[in-house]
Protein: Pigment epithelium-derived factor
Organism: Ursus maritimus
Amino acid sequence: MQALVLLLWTGALLGHSSCQDSSGSPQEDSPAPDTTGVPVEEEDPFFKVPVNKLAAAISNFGYDLYRVRSGLSPAANVLLSPLSVATALSALSLGAEQRTESTIHRALYYDLITNPDIHGTYKELLASVTAPEKNFKSASRIIFEKKLRIKSSFVAPLEKSYGTRPRILTGNARLDLQEANNWVQAQMKGKIARSTQEIPSEVSILLLGVAYFKGQWVTKFDSRKTSLQDFHLDEERTVRVPMMSDPKAILRYGLDSDLNCKIAQLPLAGSMSIIFFLPLKVTQNLTMIEESLTSEFIHDIDRELKTIQAVLTIPKLKLSYEGEVTKSLQEMKLQSLFDSPDFSKITGKPIKLTQVEHRSGFEWNEDGAGTTPSPGLQPAHLTFPLDYHLNQPFIFVLRDTDTGALLFIGKILDPRSI
């Protein structure tokens, strides 16, 4: 295996840059840290673009949310579109006074950004990642308790930067659920199933984040090669699932010897890509991989993977999730939002966050933009055949290539259901 690493990498192995800067030089050669309290700009020009820097910040929030969510359900699949949750929180911060605003901004990593117009940049980011060619839909909404009087000074910037208006509950559980479902259907073009869970009557503030993605590969799979194959749940248990195959797939690949996993990246239409993390052993705990996930780590991977040709098998996926991420957020230093926040920019009445709901749908099948690889992808010549079979538990990251934004993240322990 080590020979494979040496063949595919130039320079350092993937992503463990805690002792190196972006050029690969030891930290001793780096400039002394800034002692003025002002965040030091990253060396990589990619993160100097305001929209990319914001995308990195809220993506790091997303990886934090994923880690907590995964830790709460270690034996279950996880499917999250953290962007929709981050958007709802960022929008809510418009109505927060300084103490509460700082709590939200720290969780979203805004305290590391020197940007006087974060909300204006967020509008730019949302427009970029939800462009029609991306096949990605995301929407967020703030729902308030019935009869609440909301200040127009909160509604105007909310609508300007986030393209949404707050909703005030009627107090009629059936009507409120119907209205919420109708909004989700309109935003997601009917791609997400209607919820049957009633909105609790005691809600003060409810955040709702929804997202849907159906991937279209740059190079489509031949549906005639799709067949039922074994997926190894662990060393002893296997299940049969539809697996797509490509004996001459062009992908970007690397082996991380520290994380003991094989990493592959497949391009999608619309400047998107999916990065897969596949442990070398089916029994390997995924926690070490999960702990390494940051915007900077994923960006480094994107730069360092090498284009190769491989025998590829990948399960067809159609997953959905509906539930709360309330507990996860409470464990992310946001508990004060649920206890005694200051949202006096929204209303004169004391209100607090009660519930955060997330609904998402995610699927990929054989569909693709073309039958042949992009002419710009020239695989490295290997002296041995390489296989990449996603036939055991893995983690995937859906990333927007243009901005670096994390759009979806999943832990797939059993591809048959979420």
Notes: The chain has two domains: 3-7+216-317+366-412, 48-215+319-363.
